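Hi all, posting the design record for the shared folder.

TITLE: backbone redesign
STEP: 1 of 1
STRUCTURE INPUT:
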């Protein structure tokens, strides 16, 4: 199987970079083909501009311009190259340090530029279906916080809550199966022994990358939502917030 390993950290000697190297080694040892997009090393520009769409004229309507560029093959070469990597991949591993409750801007900008209309959205199908259906997505996050504080009753909230825009609003929206994210806490205080254990945890997750059960987000067309895209009263009655849209959430 083919994996696109998408990573974002500015320091080659960081724990994130160490885990990327160890993870890619483990994935290849399992027989997988791994393609890398190390965004900082690539000098990736995260900003969407009209230059992404060479045939664009007049007022920039990003959705329409990107859709036309995708359909005609007239899109910025670096964006096209990343789209090709993504389309070839059977799974996506997205690795980053948690900054201000989200990924670094350079990574958000990868999704902004790569998942254009017709690829990431605008296909008529979403939330469990779409152009990227059949692919899996594993998120590997290093965080300075203690693991106990990133839990349902921890001050930071659970990682699946923190990463809702990525897990549900990006992966699942485009059809990918979102896997439970892997958290490596206390990243700035970790020693060599614990870094080795973190690499082992990552290798274990990679061994089940194509077999583990994904997060049980409710699909848009599965019958749980009414015509206004609101949960029917009998679905998760009394539940509100993010967990109501996850059939497997622990309550």
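Okay, here is what came back for every position:
SEQUENCE:
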């Amino acid at each position: 199987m083919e994996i696109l390993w998408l990573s974002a950290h500015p320091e080659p000697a960081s724990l994130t970079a160490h885990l990327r190297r160890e993870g890619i080694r483990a994935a290849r040892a399992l027989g997988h083909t791994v393609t890398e997009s190390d965004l900082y090393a690539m000098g990736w520009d995260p900003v969407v501009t009209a230059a992404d769409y060479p045939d664009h004229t007049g007022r920039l309507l990003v959705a329409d311009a990107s859709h036309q560029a995708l359909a005609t093959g007239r899109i910025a070469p670096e964006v096209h190259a990343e789209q090709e990597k993504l389309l070839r991949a059977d799974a996506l591993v997205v690795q980053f340090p948690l900054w201000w409750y989200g990924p670094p801007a350079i990574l958000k900008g990868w999704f902004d530029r790569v998942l254009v209309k017709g690829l990431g959205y605008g296909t008529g199908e979403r939330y469990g279906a779409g152009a990227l259906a059949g692919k899996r997505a594993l998120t590997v996050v290093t965080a300075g916080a203690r693991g106990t504080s990133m839990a349902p009753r921890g001050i930071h909230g659970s990682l699946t809550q923190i990463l809702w825009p990525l897990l549900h609003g990006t992966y699942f929206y485009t059809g990918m199966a979102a896997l439970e994210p892997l958290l490596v806490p206390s990243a700035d205080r970790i020693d060599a022994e614990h870094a080795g254990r973190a690499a082992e945890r990552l290798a274990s997750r990679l061994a089940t990358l194509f077999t583990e059960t994904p997060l049980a987000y409710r699909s848009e067309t599965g019958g749980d939502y009414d015509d206004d895209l609101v949960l029917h009263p009998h679905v998760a009655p009394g539940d509100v917030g993010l967990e109501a849209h996850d059939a497997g959430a622990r309550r």
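COMMENT: The chain is about 30% helix and 10% strand.
Let me know if anyone wants the other runs.
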